[in-house]
Design brief:
The protein has 67 residues and is mainly α. The chain has one domain. Helix content is 48%, strand content 0%. Helix 2 packs across helix 3.
Length: 67
């Protein structure tokens, strides 16, 4: 599998290296070939939001007390 990031582009490599290992892995496993920082940022943002669990109401201790 080829590297999706142009390793000669220091800016791309530094940004890629700053991402979480989970997002790095998803990008590496994708078929994307990323050539600009904007592309990398958009793809990283997409993967970052892909695994966010849907929001649930916060339960407080008083919520569990029968009335």
């Amino acid at each position: 599998m080829s590297d999706p990031i142009d390793i000669a582009d220091r800016t791309l490599r530094e940004y890629f290296d700053s991402l979480s290992p989970l997002i790095q892995n998803k990008i590496t496993q994708s078929s994307a070939h990323i050539t600009t920082l904007g592309e990398l940022m958009m793809i990283a943002e997409f993967y970052a939001h892909q695994d966010v669990p849907e929001s649930r109401p916060i339960q407080t201790p008083s919520d569990s007390i029968p009335q």
